[in-house]
Prior knowledge:
By secondary structure, this protein is an alpha/beta fold. It is built from twelve helices and five strands. The chain has helices spanning 3-6, 26-40, 56-66, 82-92, 102-118, 135-144, 164-170, 173-176, 190-203, 213-223, 227-244, 251-269, and strands spanning 45-50, 70-75, 122-127, 156-161, 181-185. α4 (82-92) runs parallel beside α5 (102-118), α10 (213-223) packs parallel to α12 and α11 packs antiparallel against α12 (251-269). It is elongated, with a radius of gyration of 21 Å.
Amino acid sequence: MYESFWGLKEQPFGTTPDPAFFYLSPQHEEALARVKYAILSRKGLAMLTGAVGTGKTTLTRALLTQMKNIKSAVLLNPKNTPTQLLKEAAYEFGFEIVPRFKREVVVLLRKFALQKLEEGIFLVIILDEAQLVSRESLEEIRLLTNWETNKEKLFTVVLVGQPELEKRLRKIPQLNQRVVIRAQLGPLNDKETLEYIVHRMRVAGAPLFPFQPDAVKEIYNYSAGIPRLINMICDMCLLEGYIRRTKTLTNQIVQDVVKDLGGVLEDAKV
């Protein structure tokens, strides 16, 4: 709606995890390197944790677009039963027809994994919202990490979830001990918040940077450096600038936007 007013090719602060907008802060760079290492070294099991809105999903999407010789299954339903989990993995790996019974699905996936290993393809299963996964399905994940040749694991499973995932795994020692690589994401600091906003505006093709220094400080204060909240505030600021026909976004505009978003922002921080 406001793109032409600001000279943008697309909206810079969308709500989807578009890897094109991925901002590589030092902590994101470290987390990305850790997970990449887990995959390329076929470590079996890795974990990425962080509070809501810190960019976990965007990081995993960026990871998959950056890596070569990789085939992934991104599992988005944490409520799956163990059998449903395996079936969804098979479907995400490209099988249009998936067997009905678990034993047949296991045979299918194992044969597929051995074939891809010979081809030099890295197989990755990314389990999102893993803190909500049942203990039975987590046990299935543990069994998946047993799939191996004499030298290499057949799959790398990446558990992605909120900080409570770490606490859950401590109660399952037989799985927790298999997590070879751990990475964490937290909020951005004030300098990174500015760089994040500049980066997204640049990727969207902005010919100018409309956020005044005091406005950026307000955005950081109200968002606490959480990327999802930064996006929410900045998006509404751009809309407000369009409505007011001003190309200078001040701290007053940020305050007005935050007032309108007050309840939403508080809920998002929970």
